[in-house]
Amino acid sequence: MESEKIDPLIEPLAASQSFCFACHPQVPCFNECCRDLNQFLTPYDVLRLKHHFKMSSSEFLATYTTRHTGPQTGLPVVTLVPADRFERICPFVSDAGCRVYENRPSSCRIYPLARVMHRRREDGKKTVQYALLREPHCRGFEQGQTLNADQWMENQGLLPYNRYNDLMMDVISLKNQYMPGPLAFAEQRLFYTLFYDIDALRENKDLPALADIDIPDVAGASDTDLLRFGLDFLKTVITARRPG
C-alpha cells in the first residue's frame, strides 16, 4: 500500500530571518528528497545541465526530459524523465548523492526555501518573498550552520539562476496578461525553442523579425546571451498583442 504523503509546513520567512539547515550523506534522510519527484526544469536549468553532459540542448531535452503544456499558462514546460517510473527517482541521483551537484536545478538548490518574485505593473519594482518548507521526513533542520534567506541564496549559487528565472517569470506574467489561454502550434514551437532549446535557435533562420529588436549574431553569441535574447524576444512578441 502506498504511504500517505503529508504536506509540508510552510512558514513565511523574511530575507533577514535565520534558519538552520544542511544536507549531506550523514543526514538520516539523505537522498529521500530525490524520490517521488515531478521535477520541472527552468530554461537556465537546461542550459547548465546540457553543459554538464557536454550535449546540445536538443540532445539533452530528447534524452532526459518530457514536454508538457502548463494547464494555467498554456506555455510549454519540461520535466525530467525519472529513472524509476514507480518511485519517480531522479535520473541524476546515486547512493553517494547528486551526480550533477555543481549544475543541479534551481528547485534542488533552493530547498528548503521557496522564493516568489513579484513585479509591480506601475513602476516595475521587484519584491521577493520567501517561505520555509518543513517536510516531515526531512532531518536537515537538525544540521548545519545558521543562515538567513539572502545568505542561503548566495551560499547555494542561486544568484544566476534567480536572474534568469525572474526573466522567465516576466514572460509568463505578460503572456497571462496579453495572450491568455492555449497557444497555436507555431507559437508553442517558438516559446519552446526560445525557452529551452537554444542550440536549435542557433540554427533557426526563420524567426520573425520585429522592428524594435535586433536578431543577434547567434553563431558567436554565448548561451546566456542567447537565453536573454530569447526571453526578451518573447516579451516583445507578447506585448505586440496589447490592445490598442
Oligomer: single chain
H-E order: EEEHHEEEEHEEEHHHHH
Q: Low-confidence spans: pLDDT under 50, at least 5 residues?
A: none
Percentage beta strand: 15-25%
How many strand units?
10
Shape: globular
How large is the count of helical segments?
8
Helices and strands in order, then pairings?
Layout: E1 9-13, E2 18-20, E3 40-41, H1 43-52, H2 57-64, E4 65-69, E5 76-80, E6 93-94, E7 97-98, H3 106-110, E8 113-119, E9 126-134, E10 146-148, H4 149-155, H5 159-178, H6 185-195, H7 198-203, H8 223-239
Antiparallel strand pairs: 1-9, 2-10, 3-5, 4-5, 6-7, 8-9
Structural description of this entry:
- Helix 1 packs across helix 2, helix 5 (159-178) packs parallel to helix 8 (223-239) and helix 6 (185-195) packs antiparallel against helix 8 (223-239).
- The strands form four sheets. The protein has a three-stranded antiparallel β-sheet. A three-stranded antiparallel β-sheet has the order 3-5-4. The chain has a two-stranded antiparallel ribbon with strand order 2-10.
- The N and C termini lie far apart (58 Å).
- It contains eight helices and ten strands.
- The chain has helices at 43-52, 57-64, 106-110, 149-155, 159-178, 185-195, 198-203, 223-239; strands at 9-13, 18-20, 40-41, 65-69, 76-80, 93-94, 97-98, 113-119, 126-134, 146-148.
- Strand 8 and strand 9 form a beta hairpin.
- With 244 residues, it is α+β, with helices and mostly antiparallel strands.
